[in-house]
Design goal:
The two termini are 28 Å apart. The chain has a 6-stranded mixed sheet with strand order 6-7-8-3-9-10, sandwiched between helices. A 4-stranded antiparallel sheet has the order 2-1-4-5, with helices on one face. The protein folds into 2 domains: 1-79 and 159-243, P-loop containing nucleotide triphosphate hydrolases (Rossmann fold); 89-157, no CATH class. Helix content is 37%, strand content 24%. The chain has 9 helices and 10 strands.
Length: 243
């Protein structure tokens, strides 16, 4: 059984179908890529999965449970976490306290402050930020703010992590580090869905890719299949990508 599946998922904003009758499934332990032109509906689909918005129709199931109309905090506590296209961190709080908040928010049972801090330090070490744990979040580089957001999401103890363009705005070295981080997250047993425009990353890290265009799913397959798809090349890639 897939860890996450959607059937006929649809969301309108006014008269515009941001996501239209999309079916999808995500297998336990895989890294699934979600690509498409700007405005294709990728972030809206993340918002639907994480309950930031509610679909007009369709169902979304996590581990077999219908989560379509649950509240965001309940979905998080079931094991779904996310990052955002525009980094969302508490800029005036310390790096460590940002991650501690994740530990508190993601639990359905109480956790002590000492345990939350201990876990937060472990996650900062995992993403490579332990040396700056006392710094304010606003003083970090963009790449490190993105890593901080990932650490805070991981602190909620997710089984499924939604990564929304964590490589946007990064230089090639930072992109390589981010790719390696995604692989290590998967190696921890966490299932990942990632929205990304950096094709090198998508083609290298993902086992499978879904392509959206004007809110509709137009293709799905391995990186090799997507890179060779004439339809995907025409509406998005522009030329054959290297899988």
């Amino acid at each position: 059984m897939p860890i996450l599946e959607g059937k006929g998922v649809t969301k309108y904003f006014g008269g515009l179908a941001a996501v239209s009758n999309v079916d999808f499934n995500v297998e336990q332990g895989e890294v699934l890529g979600l690509i498409g032109p700007n405005g294709a509906g990728k972030t809206t689909l993340f918002n639907l999965i994480s309950a930031a918005v509610t679909p007009k129709s369709g169902t979304i199931r996590f581990k077999g449970v219908d989560i379509t109309r649950l509240k965001p905090h309940k979905i998080c506590r079931m094991g779904v976490a996310r990052t955002f296209q525009s980094v969302k961190v508490f800029t005036n709080m310390s790096v460590l306290d940002n991650v501690v908040l994740g530990s508190f928010f993601g639990r359905s049972t109480r956790i002590s402050s000492a345990d939350a801090r201990r876990e937060a330090i472990e996650f900062l070490e995992f993403v490579g930020l332990s040396a700056v744990k006392a710094a304010r979040a606003k003083d970090l580089t963009l790449a490190n703010q993105k890593r901080l957001e990932v650490a805070a999401a991981l602190a909620t103890q997710p089984e499924l992590l939604l990564l929304d363009e964590i490589m946007a705005g990064l230089n090639p070295t930072e992109v390589a580090h981010a790719m390696e981080l995604v692989t290590r997250i998967r190696d921890k047993g966490i299932t990942v869905i990632m929205i990304e425009h950096v094709m090198k990353a998508i083609m290298s890290v993902c086992e499978r890719i879904i392509v959206l265009h004007h809110g509709q799913k137009i293709a799905e397959g391995t990186p090799q299949e997507i890179a060779a798809s004439e339809k995907v090349i025409k509406v998005y890639l522009g030329e054959k990508a290297h899988a």
